[in-house]
Amino acid sequence: DLGQGIQEIGEAAFNGDTSVDGPIVFPDSLRKVGAYAFGGRRIQSLNLGQGVQQIGESAFWGSTFDVLTIP
Questions:
Q1: Which residues are within 8 A (CB) of 22 and not within 5 positions of it... i.e. 6 or more apart?
Q2: CA 53 to centroid of chain Cα atoms
Q3: Looking at the predicted structure, is the pLDDT value of residue 5 above 80?
Q4: pLDDT of residue 33
Q5: Which residues are CB-neighbours of 46 under 8 A, at least 6 positions away?
Q6: pLDDT tens readout for residues 10-45
Q7: Cβ atoms within 10 A of the Cβ of 8, count?
């Protein structure tokens, strides 16, 4: 989990980072995912949460998901 209260994930924050492989749960407080934030990742599962309002360009470019949950 990314932690309650986080509101934004910056550009390329986890781009190519293999140390975080999922499951990934975005807290409801998260509003923005920056461009290329999770590029080039294999993500076990991703739950976008209720609060996401903006997903940056190519935020998940080249990534694969086993499960993607969009509320």
A1: 43, 44, 45, 46, 66
A2: 13
A3: yes
A4: 97
A5: 22, 23, 24, 25, 26, 65, 67, 68, 69
A6: 999 988 877 766 689 999 999 999 999 999 888 889
A7: 15
